[in-house]
């Protein structure tokens, strides 16, 4: 992020003689056009507003990240439930197969 240049009265006073203050048309301060152009966008001029905008953007990204983590957590819970269900079904299958095979002896 480039540093924000701030227009100050000291800059103006240093570059423009006080004698010309009574005749505004005689004042030559070409930097004013740059400052006016820059200050048309308040985010460029106001450091606090710029930081606030960056914070807002970061907050949006953070909310999206948290939302996706929560969705992953739900998916993991679903997988754990399915895994437990499969485990119970495999135990039931084992018990049933053991019962079925208990009548037949292999010699």
Automatic annotation (TrEMBL):
Its main location: membrane. GO terms for cellular component: Golgi apparatus; plasma membrane. GO terms for molecular function: SNAP receptor activity. Keywords: Coiled coil, Lipoprotein, Membrane, Methylation, Palmitate, Prenylation. The keyword Lipid biosynthesis does not apply. GO terms for biological process: endoplasmic reticulum to Golgi vesicle-mediated transport. Residues 47-107 form the V-SNARE coiled-coil homology domain. It is a lipid-anchor. It is found in: Cell membrane. Coiled coil: none annotated. CDD domains: R-SNARE_YKT6 (cd15867). It holds the Pfam family Synaptobrevin. InterPro entries: Longin-like_dom_sf, R-SNARE_YKT6, Synaptobrevin-like, V_SNARE_CC. Belongs to the synaptobrevin family. This is Synaptobrevin homolog YKT6.
């Amino acid at each position: 992020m480039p540093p924000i240049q701030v227009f100050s009265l000291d800059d103006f006073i240093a570059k423009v003689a006080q004698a010309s203050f009574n005749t505004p048309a005689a004042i030559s301060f070409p930097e004013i056009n740059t400052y006016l152009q820059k200050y048309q966008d308040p985010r460029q001029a106001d450091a606090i507003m710029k930081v606030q905008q960056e914070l807002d953007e970061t907050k949006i990204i953070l909310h999206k990240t948290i939302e996706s983590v929560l969705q992953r957590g739900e998916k993991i819970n679903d997988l754990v439930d399915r895994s437990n269900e499969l485990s119970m079904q495999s135990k039931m299958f084992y018990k049933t197969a053991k019962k079925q095979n208990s009548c037949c002896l292999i010699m």
